[in-house]
Amino acid sequence: MGIEKLISSFAALVENCTSTRDLQKLKQIHARIIRLGISPHDFIRSKLVAAYASCAQISQASYIFSLTNRRSTFLYNSLIRCYSSLSLFSQSLSVFRQMLFACKPIDRHTLPVVLKSCCGLSALRLGRQVHCAVVANGLASDLANSNALISMYSKCGDLAVARKVFDQMPERNLVTWSAMMAGYGVHGVFGEVFELFDEMVDAGLEPDGVTFTAVLAACSHGGFVENGRKYFWMMERRFGVRPGVEHYTCMVDMLGRAGLVEEAEELIGGMEVQPDEALWRAFLASCKIHGKVEVAERVAEKVYRYGRRPILRQYKLWDIWLNTTEFIIQGTYPDILSSRKR
Prior knowledge:
The protein has helices spanning 3-20, 23-36, 42-54, 58-67, 73-85, 89-101, 110-120, 124-136, 143-155, 159-168, 174-186, 190-202, 209-222, 225-239, 245-257, 261-269, 277-290, 293-305, 309-314, 318-322, 325-330. The protein is an all-alpha fold.
């Protein structure tokens, strides 16, 4: 087999690891590439950087990147995305600056990730500069770039510009609607969340799990219990979206804030997915706020059963008793923690 065919074959194998994120297989293929002596080729290196980046192996990706002589836009994009996916936003923007200094062209995949990093750092001023780059590079009508702009502006607090971008888009997808709803929900403009949801459904789009997370979070933070019940009910029955742990967490938080702790407990008991730490914290917070000692005792059993023991200590379950009149009047002391020490 000629050298070009060999490089092409192994590049395809590495690219497959990028999509499957199979780190073990990637390492095996990389070892064979080194043994065959084709690792110095920039084409192979670019594929390896992308593959290691997709597997969140940032040190390996950065090292191979530093060895590469001809760094393409694809190569820079891979490293920018890798840093951003690991919430290393400053490093992501640093690689983007290197890309600009190297006079590499920007493509439609570059700036959405850069905008995500701006959002992660709440760097609105820099995000506005990147918006100028989006327009200057003829990407203003690109769906992914517009969605990234909406997320950046809304999360950084400039809802007016986020809505302007939204209104000017020639086409919208579920990501577009969900991003705008999430932005309104975070900043307490709950009426717009529900209005956008209705507009989206009327436009013929069916909401997905991300959309319902944004809507239920708005119901939780705004105290819209009836709306929350309605949207949670229609998830699976009307739209065929199976509730995930994030949706249950929103519901538990909403019911707990409203003092409906027993209803939240009943909802947890009927879950088809395993509760996570965020859900237990939300539930224990409501027990603490409303002084639900008996409910807290019952739920402590479940927390231990699921192996989430540190949550009880981290959330200071003792405070739940301290906040109740039962403790003050009867002088009873909880032994839930001490009795389960093994």
